[in-house]
Amino acid sequence: MTPPQPEHPGAHRRPDPQAGVGGHAPYGPRPLDRGSPLPLWAQLLDDLRRRVDAGAFTEEFPAEHRLTGEYEVSRHTVREALRKLRADGLVIAERGRASRLDTRRIQQPLGSLYSLFRDLEAQGVEQRSEVLRLERTADATVAGHLGLVPDAPLVVLERLRLADGEPLAHDTAYLPADLAEPLLEGDFGHTSLYGELARRCGVRVTGGRERIAPFLPDIRQAWLLGLADREAAFAIERVGRAGERVVEWRETVVRGDRFTFVAEWSDASRAVALAPRAAAPSA
Q1: Residues contacting 267, CB < 8 A, separation 6+
Q2: Kind and range of the H or E element at 40?
Q3: What DSSP character marks residue 25?
C-alpha cells in the first residue's frame, strides 16, 4: 500500500488578497533592482504608487514592518518612500493611528472629453455646487477666446464645486449668450453644465483643448477652497467646441491635494512641444 504523500506546505494556505493570477499581481509587490542606479526608496515609491493605482490597500495601508519584509529592504528605505507618499498627499498619517490612503483624492484622465460632475458621480463621490454667479455679462478678453467681437453678450456660470461636502474646485465658465441664454433658468446645484447645455440649448460639446499649470490662488480663491496661504493648486483653462464652433471658455482652480491627473501613453505618442523662447530685445 502506497504511504500517504506529505502535503505541500502551501496546500491550505489562505490566498493572498493582494496577489493576482499565478501570484504575479496587479496588487502585489514587485522585486526591486539592486543593480539599478535608481535608489531603492525611489523604486519602492514607484511600486507603491503602481499598487495604489491598481486598487490595492483599500482596506488598510501596510505598516512599515510589513513593507520591509515584502521588499526585503531596511526600515530607513521604507520610511523615505512613505515620507514622499505622505508629502504627495497619497497617504495620511495621524498620531496613534495606522497610515491609510487618502480616499478623498480624485483621479481624472487626460486626453478625453469629460464632465467633472459625471466623473465624480461615477467614482462614488457626492457632488454638488454652490452657484456664485449665473448671469449675462460681457468681457472683451473672454470674447476673444470664444472668437466673438469684444462686446458680445455672454453667459457666465461661476461655481464652487464640492466633493463629499468639501471644496474641490472654483469653476467659471463663459458661453456665447446667443446659444446659452436658456441656461439662466437652470439650477446648477446638482447637475452638469454639459448636460444642461444639451437639454436646454440643444448644444453638445464634442471636443476641445485644456491647458493645466501649477497656480497660486488669489485670496478669494484660497478662502473658497479652504487652502492655506501660498498653498499651490492646479489652474485649468479649457476651450470647449461643438463641432467647429467654440462654445465655452472655462477657468478652473482645483485643489492639488484632492485631484490627480492620469495620462496613458505609448511609443506612438507625440513628443512634448516646448513653448518658444521669448525673443531677445533688440539693441
Answers
A1: none
A2: helix 40-54
A3: -
